[in-house]
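I am still learning, so can you show me any protein sequence you like together with the matching structure tokens, please?
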Amino acid sequence: MMALPGGRHLDSLPLPGQRLHLMQVDSVQRWMEDLKLMTECECMCVLQAKPISLDEDAQGDLILAGGPGPGDPLQLLLKRGWVISTELRRIGQKLAQDRWARVHSMSVRLTCHARSMVSEYSAVSRNSSQEMGQIEKLLMEKCSELSAVTERCLQVENEHVLKSMKACVSETLSTLGQHFSQLLELALTREVQALVRKIDTSDSIYTTEATTGNLFSLTQEGAPLCRIIAKEGGVVALFKVCRQDSFRCLYPQALRTLASICCVEEGVHQLEKVDGVLCLADILTDDSHSEATRAEAAAVVAQVTSPHLPFTQHLSSFLESMEEIVTALLKLCQEASSGEVFLLASAALANITFFDTMACEMLLQLNAIRVLLEACSDKQRVDTPYTRDQIVTILANMSVLEQCASDIIQENGVQLIMGMLSEKPRSGSPAEVAACERVQQKAAVTLARLSRDPDVAREAVRLSCMSRLIELCRSPSERNSSDAVLVACLAALRRLAGVCPEGLEDSDFQQLVQPRLVDSFLLCSNMEESFV
């Protein structure tokens, strides 16, 4: 059990018990001094679990509590990798602050983490390649070099010399980080290759299910791992699963993993190479598949057509199957048994309306407006601002078509859009607040576009849409101080005022309609609410 140095009040000859205490303190002090030169992993792991420094910075030192399970190289790499990445970042921060004592102690600890990762991974993995062995050697050499140079910096008092040494430490730290990244990527690539090979060759449902689950967990670690999985054939292997009837019960899991991988460009390219869009169309249009399977297929479609990803706009194979996919997705929206299924299907439709304008014409012919507006009154399917965001996105994109206006009026859609202008978050979570802002903005955009038709404009005025738009413009709290909502509301208000100017008071007309749009925007965005 470790003790802190003490006994400084004992200036006379101690009693036998006190003499023993002094011997223990001296041993601990000597041990702590010797540790500067020691890098034995076991000793350092003990130190990590026992805070011995009074330095407030030390209270945030990383402790690797409980190791990964035996024979689990992936978890070992992920856990050690996270710790080492964090240590590298923190060393850089302390170096910028010239906290040399902390830089050195953290460098020693970093060396131990790196050595532990190398030795533990070697113990549980297959024979490492020559390339990995070389990078491991380079990594450990740089770790030793970092520890040595930071220790020398502790002895230097000349600021000019320290400044030059700081540049050397920074360069060493940068090179060390590069070696670590290369080693981690190589090791993770080997493990991913093993997983993909197992999925590709296995005939067992249980083995394939467990391996696909491991692959899905890896996709949740971020884009770099998704790129590795895509490059190593993960997309090909998963679509192979989705084309075998014997694995039907695994389709939802495989499709969920594919949706995650396709957040990166490499995943989308691989999907197109294996005719993945055609496979997704087959699943969506086959009613013998479960709703869960079709919902996960919709999620993949939503991912690969996302307007936020520039590389998804070049899916030439998608256009060939678009009509089938759009029809199947609208049917899934109509028959959805839960809000989650409706959200996935409607999100895919919303993204497709950005992907190609033909989709809006298809939806119009399929009576999509009636299907979507009817769903809005069904709380089981449409119960969150995220779902309403998808619906109003589809309506906004369809509203560029002239025929859309008559369908909206026929289905009492103006009243629904009016309600969306009053979308409020149930919780204060940033994601939900942002979703509500998007609903308000897109509802105003839809209203502005539809109000080209005088009948829509008159219906909007009759439902007091102008009053609500004025309130959103003048009251920042009503729009969560969103500039995007403000611009959309000003545009909609001006469009309505052009048809029914009598619905505005003079002050509203002079401030919100008559000036240039930018002047009205500046006036409203600078308004301060009074709390007196």
